[in-house]
Amino acid sequence: MAAIQTEGMTKIYGPVHALDGLTLTVEPGTVFGFLGPNGAGKTTTIRLLTGMAKPTRGRAWVAGEEITDSGKVAARIGYLPEEPAFYRWMTPIDLLDHVGRLFGLSSQERRSRTKELLELAGLSQVGKRRIGGFSRGMRQRLGLAQALVNRPEVLFLDEPVSALDPGGRKEILEMIGHLRGQSTVFMSTHILQDVERVCDTIGIIDHGKLVVEAPQADLLDRYTVPAFELECEEGSEAAFDALLKALCGLEWVASAVADSPGGTVARVVVKDLEIARRELPAQVVQQAAAYGVILRRYQIVTPSLEDIFLRLVNEANDHSQEVAE
After folding, report:
1. Mode of pairing for the β-strands spanning 201-206 and 209-215
2. How many CA atoms lie within 13 A of 192 on its CB side?
C-alpha cells in the first residue's frame, strides 16, 4: 500500500487553480521531495493531505486512510509547518510532554519519547531552557521533534530549511535522512540542493500541475546531456573561440559554445558519448596546442537537479502557452 496516494486532487480558490488534478504515489519509508517554485501549489498540497483544507474535487489517501476522515489521518501523521510557533515560556521537555498528552501517551511513554527525541534533535543539553531564547535552527529542530512524538507513519515537512543558515540546514537535513525507513517523509521545498542531497524520489510541481514524478536517479539518467565542459585561462579567450570552432568541425560533435561571448568556460555537446570519451581528450590537447590555448579544466558534465528542474518547468510553461493560444 502506498504511503500517500492522490487521484486528480484539485483545489480552486475563486478564479485560481491552486492545485490542478494532482495524481501521485509516494512509497512507504522513502524521503519524497516535492519541488517547485514559490506559489506552485506545494503548501496547498500539504494542507489537503493533512486535513487542514478540503479538495474541491479528487481523492487522496494517507497511511491507508482517506483524507475525508481527518481524525484517523491526524493520528497517523506528523506535520512541521514552515515557521513553527511555540509558547516562549515552555521548555522542550514541557512541549514534548504536552504533545504526548494530546496523543494519549502514558506518563512513562512520554518521558521515554521526550528523552529519545531530544537526543535525536541534539537538544538534550537545553531540554530545561525556555524556548523563547532558542535560535531559529534550534526551534526548527524542536519542531521536527514534536512532529515525531506519535511515531508518525507519514511526516509532512513544509519548507523545513528555507530560512536557515548553512549550519542549521545541515542539521535538519541530517535528521530527515535518519528517518528514512522509519517514516515516510513528504518534504516540500524550492531549494534544489536540499532535495538532491536527501530525497529518494522527486515530484516537480508548477502552477498547480505535476510536471514529473520519478526516483532521483532515474531523473538524472533520463535527462543526461552527453556533454563536456572546458575552461581556459583568462587572456586566451580569442584563441579559445577558435578552438571551439575547430571542435565543431568534428562529425561527432553537436555543438561547442562558450557560456558567454568571449567567455572562458564552454560546453561541448556530443552526438556519441563513447566516441567522445575516446577521441575528445586528444582533440582538445591538439587544438589547444595549435591555437595557443592554456586549458584549466576538462571534465564530463554531470547533470544537476537544477538543470533538469529548469528544463522541465520551462517545457511545461511553453506547453501551457501553446494550449492557451
Report:
1. antiparallel
2. 11
**Residue at grid coordinates 561527432:** 252
263 shares a domain with 155:
no
Torsion angles phi and psi, residue 80, rounded to 5: -120, 110
4-13 vs 57-62, strand pairing mode: antiparallel
Q: Which helix (H) or strand (E) holds 87?
A: none
Instruction: Establish if 221 belongs to a structural domain.
Output: no
Element (H, E) at 298: strand 295-300
Q: Please, which residues have CB within 8 angstroms of residue 301's CB and are 6 or more apart in sequence?
A: 225, 227, 228, 229, 267
Alpha helices (H) along 51-106: 70-75, 92-102
How many whole angstroms separate alpha carbon 80 and alpha carbon 146? 8
Amino acid symbol at 229: E
Collapsing DSSP to helix, strand or coil, 257 comes out as: strand
Q: Which of 190, 223, 221 is nearest to 33 (CA)?
A: 190
| Domain extent at residue 62 | 4-214
CATH number of the domain encompassing residue 142 = 3.40.50.300
35-46 pLDDT, tens digit each: 988 888 999 999
Tell me the pLDDT tens digit for each residue of 139-175.
999 999 999 999 999 999 999 887 788 888 888 898 8
